[in-house]
Amino acid sequence: MNKTPNEIFQEYLNARLQGEKISPEALIEKFPEHKDFLLKKIAAMELMPFSENDVSAQGGLSGQTIGDFKVIKEIGSGGMGTVYLAEQMSLKRKVALKVLSRSLFADKKLIDRFRKEGQIIAKLQHHRIVPVYLVGETKESFFIAMQYVEGLPLSKLIKNAKDEGKKLLEPGEVRDLVASELTSEECEVLAIPSGETWTEIACNIIESVAEAVDYAHHHNVLHRDIKPSNIILTKNGDPVLLDFGLSKDLSAIDNTATKELLGTPAYSAPEQLFTKHPSPDIRSDIYSLGMTLYELLTFNLPYAGESFADFVISVKSKEPTPPNKFDPSMPGTLNSIIMKAIDKDAKRRYQNVGEFLDDLKAFLSNHSVKIKYPPKRNRRKSLYVAVAVAFAVVLPLLAHYFYTHSMKMNLDDYLFEIGKVNQQFISSSSEEIKGANTEAPESKIALLMKLYGDKYSYYLNVHPKNESLKSIHEHLLLAYSRAYDSYDCLLKGFNDGSVKMLNSNGDFSDGNFAKPDSKYKKCYFANINQFKNEYSSYRNMLAPLINKEGLKTEFTQAFPESAEIENLVK
Fold first, then answer.
1. Out of 69, 99, 221, 309, which could bridge 86 as a Cys pair, Cβ 3.0 to 4.6 Å?
2. What one-character-per-residue DSSP string does 192-257 give?
């Protein structure tokens, strides 16, 4: 029997997730009649980060030559492409070579963005911003050659501290961590960022990065993805800012889709996450700087949430936890500087990086700081706050009721809201899949329960205004509720021995059940079939409205994950 295009893609995706080395080119060569469909799906899949043993969309370039560059090894990857350590043969020097994923060649918009990334960085000449040597292309590749920066990403420094349960790091520990990342035999740590305490070291790191960001802003460039993993400590103790892949040239016409999610949710300003038509603003970069400093000092983030949905709801409905709650010894001035930088209201943040730098430098030099935070509130507003607190004490569910019932929206807004969470969900879920022990059946089942539960809990807070949308939305809620219930049945079945090991492709079928008449087998299939029916009903009922109102593009953007997520329950 001939396989459908969707079945072909799902088999490819399962193989990739299990580490099999199958290139997109080989897949398309095998099924040329489905080339357009597969290219589109693979392009969407490239937005998802995969495990380190996953083969890149380039099919592995080690030892190959791209223009003047001989590829040595892969050193990183992301949604747009893969970064390799390479040698520029004409100049006999090592470079970082960022190569666009071939699966994205069909998307002219992404190719333009990739080219502009190199052009934007090339016009920035700052010692804390990685320089670009060349932006080029061959018949088979689009690439950016940059200076190769060897060192320690701040994200690894933070992870190490968390893993060891530390509240701070000593200067010697910072030196050892940087040294552990240097692979060249001739490299040795020459210095670490200045400071006698961890607080001083962390503030000095962010001060240096902020100076680079301020320089970029003065040259009409927004970074839009400042986070610990994009900042590297070199052997000289210098932090260097990387990855301008999402940057914005304020002096140029924007080619970014208004409904497109940019940046990493944990470090993205609320206006980037929840504004329907966000306009580029330097205050968003200030927010990301503040969040990075917050995490560097506390090894925590200001918004709690065991799940992705909890995190999104927390950002939308709560105020950030002050950093001195995690570190009571933190000076009040520094606490205020961070809180002002990460204020949810952009108007109450620092209005430019220079203001942020002035206060941070004044704190480090023990000079008086100009900051006045939190701002004074008028008596009427204070009364409102007091009343809100009183209600919260007497009726703790009232705030949640008003929050959930205030999110009423029309069809266009509805698709925007769904599209935002779906794009974020792809990133969040695939990160969890990457970190999970998927060899253990109970781990895989628990993970699937959590992912579907996350989505269901988030969608509970979406309330369409349109009456017809309300009934349609109920199908979506019921679908993810049934998915969660189906995996709950599997987990219980695994615990009582009626569910066996997973199939090699991670699917569940009759063969997974040791007891043919198990009540958990019946429970699983009943719920999973209802999931499929409800989800299909939702999509089928929504499609005519989309076509009628001319929102086909928005509809496509709202559901980028359908094949990737649905394959988990096939």
1. 69
2. --S-SSHHHHHHHHHHHHHHHHHHHHHTTEE-----GGGEEEETTS-EEE---TT-EETTS---S-
For tokens 């999931």, the residue is 531
pTM of the model: 0.62
Q: Which two tokens stand for residue 128?
A: 């804390």
Domain spans of the chain? 5-45, 65-147, 151-364, 407-569
Q: State how far the Cα of 64 lies from the Cα of 67, in Å rounded to an integer.
A: 10
CA–CA gap between residue 526 and residue 449 (Å, rounded): 16
CA dihedral 317, 323, 325, 328 (to 10 degrees): -170
d(CA 227, CA 295): 10
Residue 76: phi and psi, rounded to 5, are 180, 165
Q: Give, in words, the CATH class of 151-364.
A: mainly alpha
**In this predicted model, what pLDDT tens digit does every residue of 18-32 receive, in sequence order?**
455 567 777 888 888
The topology (CATH level 3) of 65-147 is Phosphorylase Kinase; domain 1 (3.30.200)
Residue bearing the bigger pLDDT, 399 or 330: 330
Q: Which of 3-7, 53-57, 112-116, 299-303 has the lowest mean pLDDT?
A: 53-57
**Token pair 């076509």 in the structure block, residue:** 547
- Domain pair 65-147 / 151-364, same fold: no
Neighbours of 391 (CB within 10 A): 14
